[in-house]
Every structure is written in structure tokens, then in C-alpha cells.
Amino acid sequence: MAVAPDPQRRRLKGLEILQPAPPAPAAPLRDCLDGLSRQWRRDGGLAGLWQDWPNIAGDQLAPHCRPLSLQRGVLTVGASHPQWRQALQYNRMQLLAAMRAAGHAVRDLRVQQHHSRVREPLESEASIWARHPSRCDVHGMGQCPRCGRPAPNGEISLWEVCGFCHRQRFTP
């Protein structure tokens, strides 16, 4: 039977009480995160690949594809568009070599189409209207070189004529 150390024993009249061990001193958060990162890499799971993916895939591929699963050494990577899927297929051997060099035990790479649920926000109507070529308060006014009518400078710089003359180009 083990005996508790003195700081854990408290003596009262004819009675001895065991107290829990004092908690370990708090470690800085950075040390905890570094330890967790090392554990992810050592365990060979998907979390370590997620962390290293921007360095492995590079600046062009990483934003458009992501590791989805790792089972028995086969990594499944999802691509957001068929062109990125094709780019992953072409760079398959380089990606495998980069993963092995980073210490990840990946035998093979499988690529599939993957549409993330996060959609890029669309541009607001107000921001589109703020730079619209017909805005004379933003671009100023000029004179159409073709018909001589006053027209916003944005239209003239975009089409080289005013909006009315530009429209006439498309009517038979």
C-alpha cells in the first residue's frame, strides 16, 4: 500500500485526512498549443494535415482544395471546381512528396469534387452602383465624340461613346 506525501495529509484529533494533490502549475497557452500541434503530427491524423496544408499545397492550390479524410494512409482531397480537381491530379506526385517530407504518412492521394457550404459573399448592390459608368456625380460629365451630346465620363471611357450611341451599335 502506498503512502501519501506529507503535503497531502492533514492531521486532526485522532484522524488523518487525505487531500487531493495540488494542481500542476498553469502553462502558457502557446506551450499548450505547440504541444497539441506536435501530438497531431505524431498521431498521423487529419488535423496535422489541415495545419500543414497551406505549405504543402502552395498558395495557388490551397485556397481551392482541402483534405477531407485520411483512412489507412489514403488521403481524400476535395476540390471546389473541376479545374482545381484537374490541377490536383496533375500535381499528385509532388503533393505526395511534399506530405512525406512534412512527416505525414500518406501512401496515396484521391481527389474528388467538393463544394464547401461556405459561399463567398456577393458584392452589394450599393458598391456596384457606386462605380457604375453612368454616374455623373462620380465620373463627371463630358461630351460624346460621336453625337456631341453630354454624357457621363464613365460611359465615354468605357465605350468611347455615350450610352445612346453605344446602344445603336447593337440595333439593326
Provide a concise account of the structure shown:
The protein is an alpha+beta fold and 172 residues long. It has helices at 29-43, 46-61, 82-90, 92-101, 125-130, 136-139, 153-159, 163-168, and strands spanning 9-12, 15-18, 65-71, 74-79, 108-113, 141-143, 150-152. The protein has a three-stranded mixed sheet. It has a two-stranded antiparallel ribbon with strand order 1-2. A two-stranded antiparallel ribbon has the order 6-7.
General description of the model:
The chain has a three-stranded mixed beta sheet with strand order 3-4-5. A two-stranded antiparallel ribbon has the order 1-2. Helix content is 42%, strand content 19%. α1 packs across α2. The chain has eight helices and seven strands; from the N terminus they run ββααββααβααββαα. The chain is elongated. By secondary structure, it is of the alpha+beta class. The model has no long low-confidence stretch (mean pLDDT 84). β1 and β2 form a beta hairpin.
